[in-house]
Amino acid sequence: MAEQLTGLADDRALLGRTSTAERVSDILRSRIAEGYFPPGTRLSEDSIGGALGVSRNTLRESFRLLTHERLLVHELNRGVFVRVLTVEDVEDIYRTRALVECAVVRGLGEPPYVLDGLAGAVEEGRLAAREGDWKGVGTANIHFHRELVALAGSERTDELMRSVFAELRLAFHVVDDPRSLHEPYIARNAELLEVLQTGGRQTAERMLAVYLENSLKRVVEVYLRRVGDEG
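^ thats the sequence. predicted structure below, dont judge the formating
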């Protein structure tokens, strides 16, 4: 836990004078998504509350919010833990992704589209790959799809998918070979970007549907193998 808390105190400044459970939740959500608190980790109220300088009640409220988002789970007489996803969870996450992301592409309207965010995420993934940072490639992939969703211009959709992508990272953290999982999507993201740059909305939607279907199969395959090995 001491190592996982490294740097958390630095986030204390983000709370400012208007410290709220929502702000604490934002910090913890980011830390969970980045892998500082892997699935199955017990979260210590004393350690985290002390690092962030927030009251026990504020921290408990943030835990409640993140439990509602399915990122944490409360176990009676044991405490609060980062959730370990089931295969059914992973399948439901991808079902939601397909519904939302394909709908965003379908509703883009007439080109040209503002694709700077997507282009930046593609370059981020390439840079991480050159450095051999495969978890960084996974992060860049999440950024790509977050930017794709942002093309809808809907704060509600962005908020919905923020939680979905954070859950997805819980599955990614179980994978023992992130390179084999994430590397193929560097090229696939670039291909999708190129099609959108040419205004091929319908082609992009078909590509995305296949992309997500293939990704689901790959994640489930690796996830089952890892969970099975641990069992």
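Residues 201-230 form the longest helix (30 residues).
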